[in-house]
Amino acid sequence: MDDPPLTPMPPPMPPPFSPPMSAPTPVQAPPAAARPPAAAGAAPVYLSCVGAALAVGMACELLGAVRAFAVLGAALVALLGMRDFRVLAVAVAFLLPFVPTLFLSEGVAGVSGQRIVALVMLLTLVSVACGHALDPWRIRYPRWRLAFLAYVAVFVFAAFNGAASASAIPEYFRVLEVVVDTTPMGYLKASLFAPGLVIAGCVFMGLLAANVRDPRWLLLPTLSSAVLLAVLVCVFALHGASAGADLAQQESRRSLSVLGLHANELGLLLNMTLALALGALGASRRAMARAVLVPACLVLMAGALMTFSRGAFLGLAVVILYAVATVRARSWPVWVLVALSLAVALSSDSLAERALHGIGGGDLGQLSSGRIDAIWLPLAPEILDHPILGAGHASILWSQAAQARTILPVGHPHSAYLAALLDVGVVGSALTALFFAHAWRLLRRAARQAAESAQGALAGFFIGGAACILLLLVQGLTDDSFMPSYTHVYFWLCYGAAVGTLAGARPAAAPGAPASGRAVAGEAS
User: Fold this and answer.
1) 284-293: which pairs have CB atoms within 8 A and are 24 or more residues apart?
2) Per-residue pLDDT tens digits for 78-120
């Protein structure tokens, strides 16, 4: 019997729900060449620290500790400024008010303050040129109005006009150290190059303001330098007098001469900064800003009072009245500061004695400290000698009254109005008045624009700049000059900031223009 045929067995069934297995991927170890040694990154840092320590030690050994840190700090700022010109522009704004003082000259760096600031300005210019060469549309350039350019032209012309007469300055002016150098080049250094740094600082401030996102930060270098200067005034005034009553005497104010400026000049300088700070305080609505501005205003008020200058007292009254007239009723910190300043002025016998000096006696000569009989009246007829264009900067030095020794040995007429008629004539005085009228309107416009942008502190800063013009007009009755000067350097910084801020608020770019194109900055005077 045959067996049945064998059928093939089916393939085995995979177990249910068993996922397919994949072979594990081997992990490759990185080659030995790709693994850096642990100490490779620390070596450059270690060598840099050692080199920096050696540099600081050698600088301290050769220059002394203070000068060494000043030089090294300046080198660091210069390196950062080559990358961004705004760093150097901030340094210019901070250092510029200290140029006429001895604080920035031989005591710190071993060279004059003018050379230090001029070097910083030169580095700023180089940084701007490099940035423009790399990207011509990267930097915004503010446009300066014709009134400003005409004013600068008057300033330059008066300097060269007076250089021809510098050799006629009497020798006793140099003996009494009213002037240092009576050569034409020495005259130009004092009348053109030194005050020209103020105009240059204004231009750099405008360039800085046009290229920052938030112009409110410009208040920091401006006000911080003023507060430091006010602290120095208080320290030297208190150190130079044995008692508060001594400070009210005419001769005791010479203790401030170690700063390099007269008490009247310091008073005008601090009053202008106080106007800027009070304006910013009155318009600011942020608690942090007020917390910073209130002590700054207190220090500036104290510095102005410690000059014991009657012109400073008069200017302080102008600033307070302007602040009261412009701030809103809810700006209570301003009212508190006004009340505090009045309380101090009324409670101090020394301040009252100095403020009332010469009042009530009927002697105009004593009231004006000899200005009327010994300066103004002898100089008044000489206005007709050069009535159109004037005789040049500081023409009092070679005037007929100076040659005849019928005036006090002073370097300026102690009246900005008389100095304008003598130095730049009717034409120059008219152009000067036109510039200040333009500056008033421009500052008010910049304040309105900042207020519309909810930048209250900046708006108040520009309102304070307008107050500086009123302050100069009042204190110019008995002192100072309408030409660029370090006594109103803060006004020039504020004016430059206003021009730059208006330049930064550029209109929308035209079709086809680069997105980062240069601003077309119009200014309405």
Assistant:
1) 284/456, 284/457, 284/460, 285/456, 286/456, 286/457, 289/457, 290/333, 293/223, 293/333, 293/457
2) 666 567 888 889 989 998 998 888 766 554 555 677 888 888 8
